[in-house]
């Protein structure tokens, strides 16, 4: 029988047993890593974005060291790749893709959406990014420059979008509620509601 | 040699995948293209070695900006693609 035909649960049990027996990872370490991985979700990134909108010092930290900014909100980053944060401005819109595979800032955004890994998204994000955005309903004003960030190596990238008009003075928690996964990849903009 | 921000660089027009098994983090569409170094992101073990469990010396990793329409001969003037590229793939452009 080949490894591809082996029962998955038995294979996993055997692998966990070997990792423990060889002193590579204890069952506690594996459980902790699963807990951390499952804690990653777009809600975490949304908390960071909302805080950056209301707190200039936090925004500055987030732009200079995304991982430290995440840790400051209690998001575990140990063992995660460095996190780069791309700041949208009224003149610049950022869009993230990984043309080679599916590099994604999982600690702060969770598992990537299915389309992020699709060949169509990966190819079109670099070849025809404005056409791609239009299909998302995202139309950039004429004067706005588009920066496509192809995540190819050791960094992971998230977008810090512009705070939408009509949300001035909102509390942080309410702001976090309007920030979606796609807003932090750059395929969409957050909207007031 | 460290590449300074603003340096014009040429991505090597090299195709290791034609010579045998390899793991390359430099996208096809940038090989042979010219861009500008935005900044040094840090030094990281060479993934081309890591993938084969070989000793992996650290390499400088750069954020490099490319003119997007120039890559495809279409698109909106001024748009750009920014990519992480290891120093081993870059040569100073003349």
TrEMBL record, chain A:
Gene3D superfamilies: Nitrile hydratase alpha /Thiocyanate hydrolase gamma. Keywords: Metal-binding. It comes from the Bacteria. GO terms for molecular function: catalytic activity; transition metal ion binding. Pfam families: NHase_alpha. Residues 11-188 form the Nitrile hydratase alpha/Thiocyanate hydrolase gamma domain. InterPro entries: CN_Hdrase_a/SCN_Hdrase_g_sf, CN_Hdrtase_a/SCN_Hdrlase_g. This is Nitrile hydratase subunit alpha.
TrEMBL record, chain B:
Gene3D superfamilies: 2.30.30.50. Residues 5-91 form the Nitrile hydratase beta subunit domain. SUPFAM superfamilies: Electron transport accessory proteins. InterPro entries: CN_hydtase_beta_dom_C (IPR024690), Elect_transpt_acc-like_dom_sf (IPR008990). This is Nitrile hydratase subunit beta. It comes from Limobrevibacterium gyesilva.
């Amino acid at each position: 029988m080949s490894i591809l035909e082996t029962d998955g649960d038995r294979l996993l049990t055997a692998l966990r047993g070997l990792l423990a027996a060889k002193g590579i990872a204890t069952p506690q370490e594996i459980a902790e890593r699963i807990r951390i991985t499952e804690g990653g979700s777009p809600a975490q990134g949304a908390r960071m974005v909302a805080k950056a909108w209301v707190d200039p010092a936090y925004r500055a930290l987030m732009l200079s060291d995304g991982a430290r900014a995440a840790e400051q909100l209690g998001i575990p980053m140990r063992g995660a790749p460095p996190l780069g944060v791309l700041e949208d401005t009224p003149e610049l819109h950022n869009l993230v893709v990984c043309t080679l595979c599916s590099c994604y800032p999982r600690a702060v955004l969770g598992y990537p959406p299915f389309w992020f890994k699709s060949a169509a998204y990966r190819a079109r994000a670099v070849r025809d990014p404005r056409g791609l955005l239009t299909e998302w309903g995202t139309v950039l004003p004429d004067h706005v420059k588009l920066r496509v960030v192809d995540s190819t190596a050791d960094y992971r990238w998230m977008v810090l979008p512009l705070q939408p008009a009509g949300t001035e003075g909102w509390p942080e928690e309410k702001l976090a509620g309007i920030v979606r996964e796609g807003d932090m990849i750059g395929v969409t903009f957050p909207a007031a509601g | 040699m460290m590449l300074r921000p603003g340096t014009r660089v040429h991505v090597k027009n090299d195709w290791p995948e034609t010579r045998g098994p390899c793991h390359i983090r430099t996208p096809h569409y940038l090989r042979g293209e010219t861009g500008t170094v935005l900044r040094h992101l840090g030094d990281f073990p060479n993934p081309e070695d890591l993938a084969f469990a070989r000793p992996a010396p650290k390499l400088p990793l750069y954020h490099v900006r490319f003119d997007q329409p120039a890559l495809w001969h279409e698109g909106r003037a001024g748009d750009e693609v920014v990519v992480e590229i290891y120093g081993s793939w870059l040569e100073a452009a003349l």
